[in-house]
Amino acid sequence: MPHPLNVTSWYFLLFSRFLRGEIHGLNTAFGLEEADLYEMRQCQGTVASAIFGNYDIMQQSEKISTFSKDVVCFMFLDEETEAAIKKIIDNTKRIGLWRVVVVHNLPYPDPTAFVKVPKLLLHRLFPDVRYSLWIDGKLKLVKDPYQLLERFLWRKNVRFAISRHYRLFDVLEEAEANKAGGKYDNASIDNQIEFYKREGLTHYSSAKFLITSDVPEGCVIIGEHIPITNLFTCLWFNEVDRSTSRDQLSFSAARDKIRSRVLFDN
């Protein structure tokens, strides 16, 4: 039988690295400017993305209704990316619909790692937001944010939605694909997977009924900021922080921890 969930003790596991400090994001790793923090705290809903290491080309959203323009779009950049596109940032720190936020004192040496901070911890960066939509920096938003909320959350009466991997369903297969593609050093991936296997990880099969996949694509995340979803993304971030930055490998481990501790109505 599932154990009662102690939200308080688990929720604050993420007080490491960038969250040290009286004000999250101020004078810390993943440091933000006070003016940016102030504007972020005015939001009731947000679309967020990030480009670090000048890796992607910023895409402008399309088909955004006048009503949805009140849902502020924030694009997190590191100093390298800001320097490359500085000439097109206007005096209100905007590029089209994107409100640019430059991050300082990044906590990891690898851009693929520190992008996970805004990706998985939006509820910490935007404490007053009820709904958020994350899209990877390589993507273009071509649907109205409220249409996406209606389609993937409200219509199904769910609180969290994430894009499923286009081909793989099995974490063990995803790990091998990451190794073959040189996504991370093989020893770290092997250590992570062996740990999860000792924790009970098995191949994906129909025996997991109602769970349609153990591997997300993760390029789109839509969520309502409530304790259980916030806790889940905190746990997921902790796995990324202590193992590898390949978040597809740790998604099901965090999900199954939650499922083992709370009563789920499938």
Automatic annotation (TrEMBL):
<feature type="domain" description="TOD1/MUCI70 glycosyltransferase-like">
    <location>
        <begin position="18"/>
        <end position="262"/>
    </location>
</feature>
<protein>
    <recommendedName>
        <fullName>TOD1/MUCI70 glycosyltransferase-like domain-containing protein</fullName>
    </recommendedName>
</protein>
<dbReference type="Pfam" id="PF04765">
    <property type="entry name" value="TOD1_MUCI70"/>
</dbReference>
<dbReference type="InterPro" id="IPR048354">
    <property type="entry name" value="TOD1_MUCI70_glycTrfase_dom"/>
</dbReference>
<dbReference type="InterPro" id="IPR006852">
    <property type="entry name" value="TOD1_MUCI70"/>
</dbReference>
